[in-house]
Write a structure and sequence with these properties.
Shape: elongated
Largest sheet: 5 strands, mixed
Number of helices: 9
Strand content: 15-25%
Helix content: 40-55%
């Protein structure tokens, strides 16, 4: 009889593409992955892995069994969801990921509420970019991801996932208080055509959005400074090194000397939660979504 944990190891290998990736995803050592695969090969009587340079690849038999393993594990997930739903108790474990400002702005209140309301539920959280969060849910590394897209640039969500809207986050433009536009009640992005910009690192969804948005307004942006952390971006603005888009979620105290001005043509970040559809009935996921919704407080107001 096939061992479920060994099928889970094979599934992780197929999804991650390497022994080290599977080990990271399963939170075990690489030797543990190799041992499980050796036992699985003995069980089925066929070679499932073959050397591929310094790594490994699945053989034809390995790919065939991996396809079955994915379907079996999905059915196990459905069975667990149905059992949890029938029992109606929020117990066990839930693994949540969120992009940085959501992790800072939502996780402290949401996770504290889950701990208080459901003491038998273990919550594990991670800070991940939106694409990484969705990939983690698809791979099974996460149960729930808090992700975002923009009103003019959507984030593709793969099939097999359920998503629910949490709220919309309205960002402002941050600039030094001595900037000519700092005293305005509203600004247009076109008015910053001659400014340097501080942006997120290249390759991140929000950086791609900023480039797309500015270019759609006829601006070829100058971006000499890249920073993943919003507080670092605002510190650069306070030093007079440019302007940036400053979302309100998780923003916290703004450095002295920085002004925040709303954009006339309103920009919005759509924030939502996503999870595997086959886990839809799990009370723990429903409880986590409700806790995230409750953690959404009033967005910080812009400061002139």
């Amino acid at each position: 009889m096939l061992n479920l944990e060994r099928l889970r190891t094979l599934d992780a290998l197929a999804r991650h593409g390497s022994v080290s990736g599977a080990a990271d995803g399963l939170h075990v050592t690489t030797s543990a992955v190799s041992q499980q695969m050796a036992k699985l090969e003995r069980e089925v009587g066929q070679q499932l892995l073959a050397k591929n340079g310094r790594g490994v690849r699945l053989t034809d038999a390995g790919r065939l069994l991996a396809d079955h393993a994915a379907r079996i594990l999905s059915q196990v997930e459905l069975a667990q969801s149905d059992i949890e739903a029938q029992r109606g108790q929020v117990v066990g474990e839930v693994r949540i990921g969120a992009f940085p400002t959501a992790a800072r702005g939502l996780f402290p209140a949401a996770i504290a509420a889950l701990r208080a309301d459901h003491p038998e539920l273990r919550v594990h959280s991670r800070e991940l970019e939106p694409e990484q969060g969705l990939a983690g849910v698809i791979r099974g590394d996460l149960d729930l991801a808090v992700v975002l897209d923009w009103s003019n640039k959507r984030l593709p969500v793969p099939g097999g996932l359920t998503q629910v809207h949490l709220f919309d986050d309205v960002p402002d433009v941050a600039m030094r208080r001595d900037h000519p536009l700092a005293g305005r009640s509203e600004v247009d992005l076109e008015e910053f055509a001659d400014d340097d910009w501080v942006s997120w690192p290249e390759g991140e969804f929000c950086h791609d959005w900023l480039m797309f948005t500015l270019r759609s307004r006829g601006i070829e942006p100058r971006i000499p400074h890249l920073a993943a952390e919003h507080h670092t971006q605002l510190a650069l603005i306070a030093a007079g090194l440019g302007v940036c888009v400053a979302p309100r979620l998780g923003r916290g105290p703004v450095p002295e000397g920085v002004a925040l001005v709303p954009v006339r043509h309103r920009m919005q970040r759509h924030v939502y939660a996503a999870w595997r559809t086959d886990a839809d009935r799990r009370p723990s996921i429903r409880a986590a979504v409700e806790a995230l919704r409750a953690a959404v407080g009033p967005a910080p107001r812009s400061e002139p």
